[in-house]
Amino acid sequence: MKAESAKIIDLFDLNETIAADYLRSFTYPWEALGGIRELIDTIGPTLPKEIYEQKGEHIWIAKSADVFPSAYIGDHCIIGENTQVRHCAFVRGDALVGNDCVVGNSVELKNVIIFNNSEVPHYNYVGDSILGFHAHMGAGSITSNIRSDRKNIIVHGTEDYVTNRRKIGAIIGDYAEIGCNAVLNPGTVLGRRSMVYPTSCVRGIVPEDTIFTNDGRKLEKK
Predict the structure, then answer these.
(1) What pLDDT shows up at residue 125?
(2) Maximal CA-CA distance, the chain
(3) Distance of alpha carbon 218 from alpha carbon 100, whole angstroms
(4) How much of the chain exceeds pLDDT 70, in percent?
(5) At residue 3, does pLDDT exceed 80?
(6) How distant is the alpha carbon of residue 214 from its chain centre?
(7) Domain 8-220 maps to which CATH number in 3.40.1190.20, 2.160.10.10, 3.20.20.100, 3.30.430.20?
(8) Which of 3, 54, 132, 147 is the residue whose CA sits 20 to 30 A from 45?
(9) Could you give the CA distance from residue 36 to residue 51 in angstroms, rounded to a whole number?
(10) Is pLDDT above 90 for 102?
(11) Which H, E and C letters describe the chain, residue by residue?
(12) If you average pLDDT over residues 106-111, what whole number do you get?
């Protein structure tokens, strides 16, 4: 089994997001969740006007993006080039969505950074989370972002990380694949190229190149 890591530099290709400089200022990705709104409001006015159109005081949408008329785009949002925001998507706010992404039917986003080429295409809830380059969430898979007892979240692994945050969804590394109807519990971290079986209930750190089965085993990808 590969060694696990929850560090930003081990999970993401920072060339694939306009949040790169911001993320480089942190060691662990959950440390970045508290400043997403301010990040968007800082980056937004600097975006090239020939590529992006400002749609509200704190909303910037690329002219090449395809936002369906029934989609809702809340405040403090950036939607990147060639991204699709499909029928009845609910982008609540504080969402930085990269280029060539899919935000699908009835998907809800809140306080997220989504790298380029990521897909959340069908009935997904993604809150207080970061999705890496080419990450993909299967239909109905969700991030659970708050404990039932409302206590602060601890990221569990061979080392436990005290986050001092009450809300963390999932940190999903580059090229990770999440199967249909999987639940990623608060503080889940998926390494690069990891895979989660459909209907799984995942918690803690899953190393890169690892398969998480729906009976909780972690198998090294061959």
Answers:
(1) 98
(2) 50
(3) 31
(4) 100
(5) no
(6) 21
(7) 2.160.10.10
(8) 132
(9) 22
(10) yes
(11) CCCCCCCHHHHCCHHHCCCHHHHHCCCCHHHHHHHHHHHHHHHHHHCCCCCEEEEECCEEEECCCEECCCCEEEEEEEECCCCEECCCCEEEEEEEECCCCEEEECCEEEEEEECCCCEEEECCEEEEEEECCCCEECCCCEECCECCCCCCCEECCCCCEECCCCECCEEECCCCEECCCCEECCCEEECCCCEECCCCEECCEECCCEEECCCCCEEECC
(12) 98
Residues, the chain, total?
Answer: 222
CB atoms within 10 A of CB 222: 5
Q: Where are the domains of the chain?
A: 8-220
Q: Is the pLDDT of residue 38 over 80?
A: yes
Q: What is the pLDDT of residues 159-202, one digit of tens each?
A: 999 999 999 999 999 999 999 999 999 999 999 999 999 999 99
Which sign does the torsion angle of CA 159, 20, 30, 95 carry? negative
* CB-CB contact of 95 with 83 (8 Å): no
- Give me the residues paired with residue 78 across strands: 60, 96
Is the pLDDT at 84 greater than 80? The verdict is yes
Mean per-residue pLDDT, 1-13 = 90
> In the structure encoding, which two tokens stand for residue 190, read together?
């998926």
Rounded distance between C-alpha atoms, residue 185 and residue 142, angstroms:
9
Q: Predicted confidence band at 1 (pLDDT cuts at 50, 70, 90)?
A: low
Task: Write phi, then psi, for 126 (nearest 5 degrees).
Answer: -130, 110
